[in-house]
Amino acid sequence: MSMRVLGIETSCDETAAAIVSDDRSILSNVVLSQLDDHRPFGGVVPEIAARAHLEHLDSIIARALDESGIALDALDGIAATGGPGLIGGVIVGVMTAKAIAAAHDLPFIAVNHLEAHALTARLTDDVAFPYLLLLISGGHCQLLIVEGVGRHTLLGTTMDDAIGEAFDKTAKLLGLGFPGGPAVETAARDGNPARFRLPRPLKGRTGCDFSFSGLKTAVRQAAIDLGHDPTTQDAADLAAGFQAAVADVIADRCRHALAEFSARHPGVPPVLVAAGGVAANQTLRTALTAVSTAQGASMVAPPPALCTDNAAMVAWAGIERLRAGSLDTLDFRPRPRWPLAELRAAE
Ligand code: KG4
Ligand code: ZN
Fold this sequence. Notes:
Layout: E1 4-9, E2 14-21, E3 26-33, H1 35-38, H2 46-68, E4 77-83, H3 87-103, E5 108-112, H4 113-125, E6 131-136, E7 141-148, E8 151-157, H5 163-173, H6 180-188, H7 213-225, H8 232-264, E9 271-275, H9 282-294, E10 298-300, H10 304-307, H11 312-323
Parallel strand pairs: 1-4, 4-5, 6-9, 9-10
Antiparallel strand pairs: 1-2, 2-3, 6-7, 7-8
Zinc ion (ZN) binds near residues 137 and 309.
């Protein structure tokens, strides 16, 4: 009999529920984006997000169950993002999951959102441990080795902005709208990446850390130096230049990380997995594929819809935890901060 888990994701501005089976099939995956609620404010407003999760979560779960054709009683566990994230939303998801688990006498699993991103490549591509992970999202930019469920070694992280933050701030600066990542990517398609000379922070340095604030400042300065408000073409050229610089830096850092991976795990065929919302970016995916090929590694990036926030990844992480016998109790407290380093290893 296969194992099936309901996943719930409410840590940012997506209200999502999904049913996933341990044979790696996604039986349903419902995502309600709150983008329109937040757009007038140019960013995610935590209070609005929490209220929207509360209003919609029950019906999103009902839809996920309906589309999967599976009754609550036939499930093997309820997994919800337990953090890190906007605490109001996390509370809504965790409370709902606990209530369903208690009412139907099912195991409850509090999933770390970052681990959910990290394990997605095992759902989509059955990647074996250990692998190298580039986690690039709104709040994170890290390179780590994933050795098992709850077992990671951090190789590098950002010294200032998270990469998604850099995309979002650049978009705001260029008047490209919200959310910034997709807006920069779209604008860059019509741009000339070579028109502005932008820096490549930390490129060529040893180690696997990142820095983006100098690049962001350089984009701002280039826009000021124009002497007028950026035209559509100026914004496209700056977006393309920014994206090319980010791709260069990411490729350089991953080259170092792949070397470090092979030094620590000799004989293991290296796999570079990209995860998190920014991994939806096509230019970055192309750069990562190129650096992986050059280093004799394979590159795995889940489809964009499973890179950005979704509940299928939460359900899958729940399955991995359930299989490893790593459950939570109903007194689990939602965590606004929950670094991967503080995650419990599964037995
Ligand atoms: O993983 P995610 O959905 O939420 C977090 O857990 O942070 O990532 C959201 C981030 C945002 O900063 C968004 O602008 C960025 O991912 N993003 C992108 C793209 N799609 C989403 N950045 C660059 N290119 C994209 N296509
Ligand atoms: Zn995320």
